[in-house]
Amino acid sequence: MATATFDAPDLGKTAPRSPRASLGGLAVAARVLDKCRAEIAGTAGDFHYNCPLDRRWFGFTGIQADAFKTFVATGANDTAVGEWIQAHAKPRSALAVAVWNVCWWINPGVLFLNLDDWMHSRRGAAK
Asked: Radius of gyration over alpha carbons of the chain, in Å?
């Protein structure tokens, strides 16, 4: 797949956004997007697109990982990706979306993931 025209994060030097960061109104989406862009650009480092965390998000939204990657490869910016997510995610009630987001915002496991991301960024900055 050709490199798109967006600025993909170099995940060998920094971490993707936190699962708490939302995009298209959904927690985890911004992290999935960062890893997808990095994979397309060949800068994913130790991070993997469509990992178990990503698959939980795909399962919740009903979006297929390949379809998401194909759209991201067009070079769409965050706003366009957020709109695409809203248009392609299976319909969920506002309550279901709120519960999904709150579960990620208060999930203590995210603290460990954020710590790991911070350490990864520190190691990458030292290279």
From this structure: 14
pLDDT tens per residue across span 34-66: 999 999 999 999 999 999 999 999 999 999 999
Number of CB atoms found within 10 A of residue 11's CB:
25
DSSP letter string over 38-97? HHHHT--TT--TT-HHHHHHHHHHT--HHHHHHHHTTT--HHHHHHHHHHHSPP--HHHH
Q: What is the pLDDT of residues 108-125, one digit of tens each?
A: 888 888 888 888 888 776
Please name the helix (run of DSSP H) or strand (run of DSSP E) that holds residue 27, with its range, or none: strand 26-27
| The two structure tokens encoding residue 46 | 């130790």
The closest alpha carbon to 91, from 65, 61, 59, 55, belongs to 61
Q: Residue 15 has which token pair?
A: 């971490």
